[in-house]
Amino acid sequence: MNALAVLAAVLSLPVNGSAHRSCDGVPNTVLPAQRPSDLDPFSFTHIVYSFAYISRGDWKLTTTQSDDDELIKELQGLKKQNPNLKTMWAVGGWAFNDPPYQDIFSTMARTSSSRAAFIKNTLSQLSAYGFDGIDIDWEYPGTERGGVEEDGKNFLLLLKELQAAIKASGKRVEVSFTAPASYWYLQQFPIKELQDYADWINLMTYDIHGSWDIKFNTGVLPHTAIPEVNQAVNMMLKAGVKIGKINLGIGFYGRSFTLSDPSCNVGGCPMSGPGIQGPCTKGEGFLSYGEINHLIQSRGLKPEYNATSQTMTLKYDNQWIGYENPDTITKKLEFVLKRAMPGVLIWATDLDINNNLLSAVVGKALAQLPSSTDCPADGVWPRTEAGKKATVSCGSGGGTRARPCFGPGWGTEESFFCGQSLMMVEAFGKCV
């Protein structure tokens, strides 16, 4: 049975970060501010702190909020509760490819000397801040977003040289990067070659549609429809990426639209622009799950499930919102398991309310854990008390070993203590 990795991006915006958020005209409880210490460290395999930027010229990672150092320290404190939790620092993001930053990734990756400086600084800063890895969120290589045609080739050199430096350091540093669900942007990535230098590829299977579609006259459409999610995964496979490298992106938010004609309110109906901004996230065309839930409760609205897209729709006045709820997220997890994908990336934990969506992810993932006594084909773990060593005879040779065992003939060659195994077992501290 598959075990899932659960990665969560902890949203940290340069101006209005989740730790400082307030709502206009509604109680702050509609979408409470979130600090790292509010997170359950046993609900994730990895937490990705987003975002760092890159300083021009010296190519160092830079924080984007005055209290990032404090928040990062608070995040790393979660490891005291769950020593198996991994933390990563995401660099970049969509806004980092907007002016005045849009050429920084491209310029940094362009020469061997600038790449070397970035790599040296990054490894030093990851260690100083206590991060276990880096997630590179370059959105996107190529001329469309402020770069040059050679960006894809240079990105490959960057990851290759980063992995060489990690190997030379003798330390374990995890590396991931984000990839778009759109061929228009993905074509700039030498994606087949890039996978060899990353532990994960986080496929952003959200924002497939939005108010920007007005120029294509597609009308209103859900941004996470399963058929298009499936197409995005198949696009990656066709490009030569192994399914075991791809984490599926799950959005804890909806995309909203203003209908041209309120009487035409089904998928594909014309729009006049983005939906009205939410009272807490304060951006047109975007609503957190917390804000959507508030709309449902305060207006007595009845969401509709679309069986084709396997998403939820909310309609009122001239507004149309496509989003996920716990049931549709469970279907996304079923898709991940069916396709034998290694895990999911959540964007972002602070957009949930009362952990409603997170619980759907965690509940489905927990169901994939091995039983308390079984290890598939490779031995049987005895029941073990927390803090005690468990041993099992694994068929790959060498007799009895202290190690987690997840498949025929393989496991990690290391001492194993209850609650310190891999993947979801690691994340939830379960003893097997």
Automatic annotation (TrEMBL):
SUPFAM superfamilies hit by this protein: (Trans)glycosidases, Chitinase insertion domain
Q: Does the keyword Oxidoreductase apply?
A: no
| Catalyzed reactions per annotation | Random endo-hydrolysis of N-acetyl-beta-D-glucosaminide (1->4)-beta-linkages in chitin and chitodextrins
Superkingdom of origin organism: Eukaryota
Leader peptide range in chain numbering: 1-19
GH18 domain span: 19-368
Sorted keywords for this record are:
Carbohydrate metabolism, Chitin degradation, Glycoprotein, Glycosidase, Hydrolase, Polysaccharide degradation, Signal
Report the Pfam families cross-referenced here. Answer: Glyco_hydro_18
Tell me the Gene Ontology biological-process terms attached to this UniProt entry: chitin catabolic process; polysaccharide catabolic process
Concerning its family, UniProt says: Belongs to the glycosyl hydrolase 18 family.
Q: What is this protein called?
A: GH18 domain-containing protein
- Per the UniProt entry, what species is this protein from, by scientific name? Rhizoctonia solani
